Amino acid sequence: MKTNWDLSVFYAGFDDPAFAADLASLPERTQAVLDAIAAPQADQAKKLRGLIAQLEQLYTTVEHVGLMINLTLSCDAQNEAANAAMTPLMRAEVALEQMNNAFCRHIASIENLDALIESDPALQANAFFLRKSAQAAAHMLPEAIEGPVLEMQLSGGEAFSQLRDKLDATLLVDYRGEQLPLSAVRALAYDADADVRRDAYEAEIASYAKLELPMSYCLNSIKAEARTMASLKGFDSVLAMTLSHSNMSQKTLDAMWTAIREALPQLREYLKAKGRLLGHGNGLPFYDLFAPIGTSSRTYTVEEARGLLLDLFSAFCPQMGEMMRQAFDEGWIDMYPHAGKSGGAFCAGCYDKDISRVMTNFTGSLSDVSTLAHELGHAFNNRMLTRMPYLMTDTPMPLAETASTFNETLLSAAMRKTATPEEELMLLDASLMENTQTLVDIYSRFLFEQKVVDAQADHALSVRELKETMLWAQDQSYGDGLDPDVRHPYMWACKSHYYSTGMHFYNFPYAFGCLFGRGLFARYQQEGEAFVPVYCDLLSRFGSDTIENVTASVGIDVTTPDFWRSAVESILKEVRRFVELAR
Hints:
The chain is mainly α. The chain has 25 helices and 5 strands.
């Protein structure tokens, strides 16, 4: 088993001639697509087939180069070769976006597009991509300013986003006389020792003073740029722009938030019950959100985590079990925290090689095992997407969190089946810990980001205002579930999602995925093995239609609160059981 990922599947290194050649070829190949778009062609179907083939080849190369650079930097923020390669990649991506816009304008100009698609099997296979491209033409940057605006983003939002990542990855925290990476100190929130958790929290909060000012400039600048881009593209708001990119309607988002807001008082009962178990009388202090419950301080080695996940998921779906074996044994995962490595976890897929790469910061907690199941759920979703043409695999973020949540839910349910009451309490806590993060905390992040985006209309928020806004958002969401004197005013600094220039409001997709995944798990419990092929087919079609149509294909209406209420109820049942056992 390997605990560092293998990037040689992309290139032997940054000195590999193939890497240099691919990176250098991107401008010329992008121009070739532009030339093909402009070239007259009597046979429109033939022209579109040719353009689709060119796009598939070009995007595959971009994917290889981008993975090599970005994966390296996620684990080695100061890698000189990767940092040097980032600049030409970003410039190539500007040209790619202009090319994509030109493609969309061309597709929108085809008067008989629907008839053309229906006349050709290859075009039918890419129908949603083509129709969405035509619709996207209505929200392109004005052609006259497109180039300069995209170029300016490189020294604007993109630069601030990179600066934020470097600040986070290189911050050293003064903890008990040691200098530790921020990711390692944050991992101590799961420690069985209450003093360790509290000291780590206090050290983390104190450390943000070193970077709060530059972080505030990064955040304000990125969100101010987002407002400008939304306006230039003809969207009413930054949120409307994100929903359009997510193939999701405002009606669906509103329905989900309605169900979550209704459930907040009951979700807070879990936090208060956990607080009482840990000896707190005024809600749960933030540093104990992730505290383990019960006398068992069980930790897992990577080998134990591997065995647990392979046994469980092989029984659910042999194809998933085989993929997980590959992940552990063939260098898909970069496992442990270290200096220069980003915090958190993620999964990145490579379509043509049918592989993924997972980054995590494993320290042995049950939560870390759940994180592995989560990220490997993404990897399985990536594998199912290879059933579709490349251009039909662009999964919107809300659906992208489905398979990951499904895996977490399956793991938790399986472990509770044979548990004693004390073990059940511990496992319920692990499940509810994750679910309150993806509902309660995510709601606070959504409220916070709305305030920050709206504020950019007249001023940039100071560090003080950002901290106050974050505490306000946590109060709206967590309420009396958290100790009002021990919250986290710097969550805006430690969550990288706020700093993405390509995906604003990178929060509600997690709540969507959590609840949609649990809804699908309930179907699996009812239907058993017969549901597995339905589930796999569903994952393969995530990039092939709107969210509303994809979910309706399995009989789920996400545009009204009813489905969301039923999914939330599955979590509230766990809350009630936890409170009962806690007594």
